[in-house]
Amino acid sequence: MTVNDLLNVGSFSAVVLAEADREIEGVYIGDLLSWVMGRAKSGDAWITIMSNVNTIAVATLTDTSCIILAEGVTLDEGVKETAEAKGINVISTPLSSYSAALKLYSLLKI
Asked: What residues does each domain of the chain span?
């Protein structure tokens, strides 16, 4: 499943769509950035409520396929610009982290 495919299932909307054809290979949920940095895998969709510029840096380091901002969290304009410049996909959802993960699990069949 690609990031673009995820946008077509409902409940997920694009904030920054830098690489729409990026494959989602797994899911990681976490809000402690140092923890995510050491555990998220390349290709994971990273579900978080953190929306500061450091999330973009962590997504770059871990090579996640996208950041999914749960619970309706938004990005400020400066963070959005950084995501665009770094080529990081950012998705938003009103779902909780748990519900977003369940939805991804059912779609990925992992």
From this structure: 3-108
Task: Select from 59, 58, 66, 55 the least CA-distant residue to 2.
Answer: 66
From CA 4, how far away is CA 9, in angstroms rounded? 9
Counted residue by residue, the chain has a size of 110
Q: Which two tokens stand for residue 102?
A: 């369940």
Using CA atoms in the order 87, 51, 80, 68, what is the torsion angle rounded to 10 degrees? 50
Cβ–Cβ < 8 Å for 1, 24? yes
CATH for 3-108 is 3.40.1390.20
Q: What is the pLDDT of residue 96?
A: 98
Low-confidence stretches of the chain (pLDDT beneath 50) = none
Predicted confidence at residue 110, as pLDDT, reads 67
pLDDT in tens, 71-103: 999 999 999 999 999 999 999 999 999 999 999
Strands 26-29, 13-16: pairing kind: unpaired
Taking the C-alpha atoms of residue 104 and residue 110, their distance in angstroms, rounded to an integer, is 9
